[in-house]
Specification:
alpha+beta; globular; two-stranded antiparallel sheet; 5-stranded antiparallel sheet; single chain; 307 residues
Length: 307
């Protein structure tokens, strides 16, 4: 993996690595990602939503910068590091389990779903943005749906929990609520990064009609470091994202990354913070497809130096 904020160092290091390969080596494949940003400079994914929030933090100076009245972003290194059994001293030298997934996004279908959900709930004007926010759990600018009924109105905060939200603000099926309930399961959180891939001619953050959006060939290169593949990544995907009975009965799959048959029907709050729900309806269609991936073990520097 090669990464930098600018493309030139990446290209230079890539050429250096390729030039150092022995004649017996072949380049079998290559994935190229780029950091996509909205006009505010925030990193976004292809559906147009700010991405990469709520990362677990491990370094004190980063933790000290974050408000912690409700949500503490500090995590132990055991969330990402495990002893490296092949290092000179496994007690001191650690590695990490890396998950890589290539996730294709059908942006056109997702934008159609946003519009259909807004129409079905009778949302009008600026309140229509709440339809997509109920699927993601955040508005496009990153505003948590459990905190506000609309985006904007000041800096986007991340110091929140879902405590006291019975699903009338952010549905239990909302992507960020499914994959990070915040009040429990801290030992499950991974250090994750996503890089968008694919070229598009439209602007992901604007209000162009769905027909102008790509239906494939774009998506996310998802990477996550884990202390345990079984207890972190696989648990998050299987027991949370793909579990229709997560936390409360009949909440449905994660509408963004959930995989599998979506048999049960779900309901959405018609008004933010009010108990009135829509009639039960079919879950939204799957718009994210895994194109491939692999598990890796990233060894310690001590192991690599002793090769």
């Amino acid at each position: 993996m090669i990464g930098d904020a600018e493309p030139e160092p990446v290209a230079a290091l890539r050429e250096e690595i390729l030039g150092a390969l022995p004649e017996s080596a072949r380049l079998l494949g290559e994935e190229t990602g780029q950091g996509m940003r909205n006009p505010a400079g925030d990193g976004i994914e292809h559906f147009g939503y700010v991405d990469g929030r709520s990362q677990p933090l491990f370094v004190k100076d980063e933790v000290d910068k974050e408000p912690k009245q409700h949500w503490n972003p500090a995590f132990p290194l055991s969330n990402v590091l495990v002893p490296d059994p092949f290092a000179p001293n496994p007690v001191r030298h650690h590695g990490s389990y890396l998950v890589f997934r290539k996730l294709e996004q059908n942006v056109r279908a997702f934008k159609e779903i946003e519009q259909e959900l807004a129409d079905g709930l009778g949302l009008v004007g600026a309140d229509r943005d709440r339809a997509g926010a109920m699927l993601v759990g955040r508005f496009k600018d990153g505003t948590p749906l459990t905190s506000k009924p609309k985006a904007g109105g000041g800096p986007v905060g991340n110091d929140f929990t879902f405590d006291g939200d019975d699903g009338s603000k952010c549905p239990f099926s909302g992507h960020i609520r499914k994959t990070n309930p915040r009040s429990f399961g801290r030992e499950v959180l991974m250090a994750r990064r996503g890089q968008t891939y694919g070229q598009r001619t439209d602007e992901p953050w604007d209000d162009s009609p769905p027909r102008t959006r790509p239906s494939g060939e774009v998506g996310l290169l998802f990477m996550a470091f884990n202390g345990s593949l079984l207890n972190q990544f696989e648990f998050t995907q299987q027991s949370w994202a793909d579990n229709p009975d997560f936390e409360n009965p009949a909440t449905g799959h994660d509408p963004v990354i959930g995989q599998g048959d979506r048999d049960i029907k779900v309901a959405f709050p018609k008004v933010w913070g009010k108990p009135e729900l829509s009639a039960p309806q079919a879950q939204v269609a799957q718009t994210v497809t895994m194109k491939g991936g692999e598990y890796f073990f990233a060894p310690s520097l001590a192991y690599l130096r002793n090769l």
